[in-house]
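Hey team,

Filing this mostly as a record. A colleague (T.K.) asked me to run one chain through the structure pipeline before their review meeting, and I want the input and output archived in the tracker in case anyone asks later how it was produced. No errors, nothing strange. Just documentation.

Input sequence:
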Amino acid sequence: MSGNISLSEIREQFVQSKSPELDSVRETIAKSWFRSKSFGVDPQSGPVTVGEEGRHSISQRTELFEYVFNYTESLFRECPDRDLVFLVTDRAGRVVRLFGSDLTRKRAASAGIREETLLQESSAGTNAFGTCIYTRTAAYVCRNEHYKSPFCSLITYAAPIFDSSNEIAATVGILSFADVPDLTLLSILRHACSAMSKECLIYMQRRSLHDLNQNLDCLINTINYGIVILDENTCIIRANSVARYFFLMFEYELIGHPISVFISPQDLDFLLLKSDVYDQEVVIHSGEVKRFRFNVSVYLTGTAAKKRNYILVFRKIESKSVQESDTSMHAKWHFNDIVGTNPLFIEALNLAKIAAKTSCTVLITGESGVGKELIAQAIHNASDCAGGPFIAVNCGAIPKGLAESELFGYENGAFTGAKKTGMPGKLEQANGGTIFLDEIGDMSLDLQICLLRFLQEQEITRVGGKKSIKVSVRVIAATNKNLEEAINNGVFRLDLYYRLNVFNIHVPPLHERGDDIINLSHYFLQKYKIGSSHPFTGFTDEALNAMKNYHWPGNVRELENIIERAVIISRSERIRLDDFPYNLRSCYQQMEINQIHDRTRSDPDGQPAAAHPSPQAAEQDLIIRALRSAGGNVTRAAEIAGFSRKTMYRKMEKYGIGR
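Output structure:
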């Protein structure tokens, strides 16, 4: 200070335009005072708040600010001085987060500093945050160095955080209520913000690389050809959705495996390639027995001095397996096509594999939609009669008057409207192969007698005919009914039951198969997203939890329909709970409500809560648990707790509960 004039008096004369001597004022502060006066800042009024229109700046950099918030909060918690308030502002100087005790936050508010306060110099005059933004360097402003009177009880410190473009992205600062500045605090801020700037640069570079990879994934998944990328060791590092469909494999089954597992080096030896290859025919080996022909073009990337990669472009020649014949009487499913890891389901598959090695009659039981016909087809394809036809007959769908002629065939003139040449029945058409009698429990008693005779003699007589025809047919029957109960009710023959039930396989319902629900969900998503232009990446955690806890009355068939529907209506990268039908959503929401109410009656260790808690305490606990269960989503939490959204917000404010 010069003479006996205090800094407070110099500031007072300056704001009153009395032109005092500023030799005793720090140069940084003096220049800021002149800027503040030129901006027309009122030195007596409190700072302004930015309001709703300024909130978009943080929403554009949500992840960056979350990192800065977490770092700043850790600084606050590690600081031994509890009389400080730590602040974060955006690049415009708007306060976006405060960290401090209730007392210090109230003291800051009394000076006019709270969330949404604008601290840039053009609005708040000289202060560490505004001066830091203007000068692009760390700053501190002590008490009467502030231009505005409400700030003169504070010491403010601030340091900038720079983004990858070397522009200020945010500032982090401190409010102190001490009498003299502590330059250690400024040093801490300077080093912390330097570290955050470097971390933000690394984060932005990683994010750019991540975005580039996502763009590449999006690009190759919009192409109607199968795209596979190999590393220098010819191992698969990326495959688009069309390629995964061609290979009949999930991504995890492809990534990391050498391409030679799927394409024989005799067809194409990638390690020997010296130049690009165009439209060479190859055979893809998928699983134990499936083989598919494709044209493949191979493009070499990189140079001899760098690691070489291979880009493979597959074009389908024909959709049929090499071993398939073009007939509707073919079983397309094999054991390696069937998705499932649940022990109960694996036990059923193992029994089916054993049955496939025999010629005995098989009875498959299970609820509707569990996949009984898939297992029947797999048994056929793994059996000695795999080269023969596979004929599926729905016994419940055959008109009663035509049932016998449908199954056993008819001769010329057998009935009015019969073909002159006659017609072989399903059993005769299945000669040398397998007949699958679905819904056998719905077969009429008259037809049951005819079927029993066939099982005993292995020969049939057409309706209206006299000649017996010897046939060799493997019989696999299936039902979703309790045949023993049907026998007791007199609607199913006991002797036929024993003829059919030589080898029984029970397929468990989907709700008993645990993780198979998720495995099948990803399988169906992979299947149906092929025909969609939307790049789906999976399911949200909430959607997965809902599927895990649903009872699935329609079993696998219902799950497939739900996933197909979700792919059609979803507009996000991941399938959400809202993309599912109402019945699945409501079951999940009811389960969450029940769990929340159960938890409110127990302490965190699962023990009964103390007797007669106050209604306010119980309600507060219910709200907290609902918010936790909903991941902070107030709308979802309100549904779980049984409140309207407006009531939920009011009660959160009442109990001081944040998200």
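Quick notes for T.K.: The two ends are 50 Å apart (CA to CA). Residues 318-327, 605-612 have pLDDT under 50 and may be disordered.
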